[in-house]
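A.,

Following up on our hallway conversation. C-alpha cells first:
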C-alpha cells in the first residue's frame, strides 16, 4: 500500500513539474475579455466572419443562435423605444420607423399607422416578427455564402484544399476551452516578420505556424489600441462560441446564490425556533 502511495506521489510531482515547465515556455498576455459585453461580442463575430471564416469553421454554432444571443436584445430595445415614443406622441426618427416596421411586419410611415397596427397585433406576433427581423440582419451582415440562417457555420475552404495549402484548417468551436482565451489573444497578436517562412511571418506563441497574418491590414490601418481591441473582441467571441450557455449560466448562478442565501437565513431562523423548544424541554417523548 505504501509503495502504491509513493508511486502516485512521484507521478503527481512529475506531472506538476512538467506542467510548470509547459506553462513557463510561452508568456501569454491577459486578454481581459468580458463575455457579458454584447458590443464586444457583436464586433467579434463581424471580425471573425470577415477575416477568419474563409478558412476556419465553428461548426457547433448556428447563425440564428448568434442572432438570438447577440443581436435580438438590441432589436427588441429599439422597438420598445419606438413604441414608447408612439404612445407618448413624441416625434419619430428614421430608426424608430425601421424598428416599428420590423416588429409589425409592415412598412410603417406614420405614428397613426403604428398605433393602428399596435392595437391589432398580438405580443406573440411581435416577438416572432422581431426574431425574423434579427435573422434577416444576420443573413445580411454575417452570411457571405448561400447558407441559410439555421445552418451550422462551416468554412468556405474545402478540407482537401486546406490540407494542400496549410496542412489543416482546424475548427475553432472549442479552441477557447482547449487553449484558453489568453492563448487566442496572445497568438493573434504574436505574428512577426520572418522572410524564411512561406507567408513571410512567424508567431511567438506557435512557432512555424502555417497560418498567415490575416489581420495585417487591421494592424496597419489602425492604432495599436484599436488593433488590440479588435483582437480582444475576436477572442471574446470565440470564448462565447466555446460555451454559449455562459451568457445564461453566469446570470442564473448569481440569482441562485442569492436565493440560497435568503433560504439559509430563513432556514437558520426556523432551526433556532425548533431547537428552542427542545433545549428548554417543551417536547417530551411518550412513555
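Then the amino acids I'd put at each of the 287 positions:
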Amino acid at each position: 500500500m505504501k509503495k502504491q502511495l509513493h508511486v502516485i506521489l512521484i507521478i503527481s510531482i512529475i506531472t506538476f513539474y512538467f506542467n510548470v515547465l509547459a506553462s513557463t515556455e510561452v508568456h501569454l498576455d491577459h486578454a481581459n475579455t468580458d463575455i457579458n459585453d454584447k458590443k464586444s461580442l457583436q464586433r467579434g463575430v463581424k471580425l471573425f466572419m470577415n477575416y477568419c471564416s474563409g478558412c476556419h469553421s465553428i461548426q457547433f454554432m448556428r447563425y440564428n443562435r448568434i442572432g438570438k444571443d447577440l443581436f435580438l436584445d438590441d432589436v427588441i430595445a429599439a422597438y420598445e423605444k419606438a413604441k414608447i415614443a408612439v404612445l407618448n406622441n413624441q416625434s419619430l426618427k428614421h430608426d424608430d420607423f425601421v424598428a416599428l416596421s420590423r416588429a409589425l411586419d409592415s412598412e410603417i410611415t406614420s405614428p397613426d399607422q403604428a398605433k393602428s397596427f399596435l392595437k391589432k397585433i398580438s405580443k406573440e406576433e411581435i416577438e416572432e416578427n422581431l426574431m425574423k427581423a434579427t435573422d434577416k440582419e444576420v443573413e445580411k451582415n454575417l452570411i457571405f455564402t448561400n447558407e441559410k440562417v439555421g445552418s451550422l457555420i462551416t468554412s468556405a475552404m474545402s478540407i482537401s484544399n486546406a490540407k494542400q495549402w496549410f496542412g489543416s484548417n482546424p475548427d475553432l468551436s472549442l479552441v477557447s476551452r482547449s487553449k484558453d482565451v489568453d492563448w487566442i489573444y496572445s497568438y493573434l497578436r504574436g505574428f512577426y516578420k520572418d522572410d524564411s517562412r512561406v507567408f513571410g511571418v512567424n508567431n511567438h506563441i506557435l512557432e512555424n505556424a502555417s497560418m498567415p497574418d490575416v489581420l495585417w491590414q487591421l494592424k496597419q490601418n489602425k492604432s495599436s489600441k484599436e488593433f488590440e481591441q479588435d483582437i480582444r473582441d475576436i477572442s471574446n467571441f470565440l470564448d462565447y462560441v466555446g460555451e454559449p450557455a455562459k451568457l445564461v449560466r453566469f446570470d442564473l448562478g448569481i440569482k441562485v446564490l442569492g436565493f440560497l442565501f435568503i433560504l439559509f437565513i430563513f432556514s437558520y431562523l426556523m432551526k433556532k425556533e425548533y431547537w428552542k423548544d427542545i433545549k428548554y424541554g417543551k417536547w417530551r417523548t411518550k412513555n
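Residues 20-24 have pLDDT under 50 and may be disordered. Curious whether your intuition agrees with the design.

B.
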